[in-house]
Amino acid sequence: MIPTVQLQAVASFAARKAGEFVLANLSRRHDANEVARQDVKHKLDVESQQLVAGIIGSAFPEHDFLGEESADAPMRDERGYRWIVDPIDGTVNFFHGFPWWNCSVAVWKDGRPLAGAVFAPELGQMFEATCDGAAYCNGCELRVSQIRNPELALVATGADKSRPGGYSSRYMNRIGELCQRSRLCGAAALDICQVAAGRSEGFFESGLYLWDYAAAALILERAGGRWEVLKAYNEPKYKAAFLATNGALHETLKTGLLPLV
Length: 261
Hints:
Layout: H1 4-23, E1 32-35, E2 40-42, H2 43-59, E3 64-67, E4 82-89, H3 91-96, E5 102-109, E6 112-120, E7 125-130, E8 135-137, E9 140-141, E10 154-157, H4 166-178, E11 181-184, H5 188-196, E12 202-209, H6 210-213, H7 216-222, E13 226-232, E14 239-245, H8 250-257
Parallel strand pairs: 3-4, 10-11, 10-12
Antiparallel strand pairs: 1-2, 4-5, 5-6, 6-7, 7-8, 8-9, 12-14, 13-14
């Protein structure tokens, strides 16, 4: 078994290097391969993923690699070490110059996260955790909030880009009915890290991919929170309805949102 501190060092280094690379290329914000109503396919996504893959491949050449930009690549060992990467989570935000985006790197084994890092370059924040240690942001330990009253809770959500319009807004409306305020910020990993940091009480998205939450879910868990895949989809692969909370509000939010999934 590889020490988690060693895995974490590579995850954090790779996430930071990817973020620094994208930051150095801010003048290329609009350098996209495709711009659609619901999504942006960015050249920097591909380039930064290649950078991360090179770092991980040099450190652990025998490990599998799953990146958003190469999600159809076959896995050698579904239960072995698997690095899961979203090179730019929040690509639409990045494209428009909104600083709420991040680079996410995690390593899983036997279906569970071992180490992960979420780096928000324009915010200067590095979130990281191992499965046997605490969660941190810029070296400061994270803890979830202790709010138990949903009427005092701030809960973020996300828009399922495959189902635009009213499908996603019904979740935001439901959260608004349950909680003090709902928010839609557009970068799931960073939204989940806000729950870990005690800055919000929950996050839900009906169509989230594994690379969106692979690192952030561990960071939340080690900060005392709770996450759950409420529904896994067979097609497309790696997609799920995902809930993250401070733990105290988990069952309340799950009960309120699950009937809509």
